[in-house]
Amino acid sequence: MRRIPLILALASLSIAAGASAAPPDPSAPAETAKPSAADQARLTAIRQYQHDLVSVVALRADPAYLLGAALLARPFTDQPQGLDFDSLSARALAAPDAGPAIEWVRLSDCGKDDCPNAKAFAALQKKAAGNAAVWLVALDLAAAKHDADAERAALKQAAGAPMYDDYYGAALQGVADAVSVLPPLPDTIHGAHDGQPDNPDGVRVLVAVENTGAHPRPNLEPLLQVCGKHAADKDAGIKADCLKLAHTLEWGSSPIARAVGLHIKGELDAADKPQTDEENRNLAWQMQNYSMLLQHSLTEEALAKSWLDMARNGGTELSLVLATLRANGISTDAPASFTGTASPAAATSSAH
Fold this sequence. Notes:
By secondary structure, the protein is mainly α. The chain has one domain (2-22, 37-348). Helix content is 59%, strand content 1%. It contains 18 helices and 2 strands. It has helices spanning 6-14, 37-57, 63-73, 85-94, 100-105, 118-127, 132-144, 148-160, 168-178, 200-210, 221-226, 229-232, 236-250, 255-268, 273-296, 301-312, 317-327, 344-348; strands at residues 2-3, 216-217. A two-stranded antiparallel sheet has the order 1-2. Helix 1 crosses helix 15 (273-296) and helix 16 (301-312) runs antiparallel to helix 17.
């Protein structure tokens, strides 16, 4: 199970395209400079804003708001009972109209010997059996145990599922709803510089992105191994399931899933490779531009407001990407001069 920060995921998908938002080079010397007193004061104010949001949003009964409050509470280690992640997510789960997204975020509420959370995973297998993402978690677990039979069974279940959703859109909607409840105080933007949030909605964007950055996602590396050309060509059944699942991933909820689906389809079906290569190039273009727009939203209030409004509408991560590009007049098709690619290897090698 991977927990991939949003900005890092965007950069990973854009890295072959030379995006300016690429993640830091791990071989580079560590930054030793401490934040200035003013920067630290601003950070403290943002954390206080987040803490206040939890206390106020916790009064709501709506499952989306409670999910948002739970995610906002998660970074704090000293929350009183009732205002902590476990209590708030349990309330969200018990609320009327609660969806599987709440069980999904609880997957990462786990320890070394119980990860993903076994109770949440068992519930998802019952409540969201038609979601390929659930069975890709099962495939990852089987691969970790070197259980080939369980891997094959998980692949078959995933291939038979009609959709793929890692519920990032629902989690983001909850947090975006939650940050609308209170305005950030002036201290959260006082003295902002060098791309730091300098307006209230920019602060809201930062808080929303930070608190959905560790959203759990299936580790797709085992799938790339099972559906590699060499392995799939040996078994017609595996190849058929891989191609069926690739189509589901291609039209699934996340850019990372789309990149992997396009890769598998291009590998296993030579006739489709020119088309999948073009779609892959478009995806890299989309992610590079979305990443830049998201960065600019910290300092451009109108862009921040627009993005928050779209996030509150729900949908999926990929639909938010496309809607953001269109709202800002950016084509979703890459220009002829663009040569980047969305690498599934980069996307799936991000940190846990």
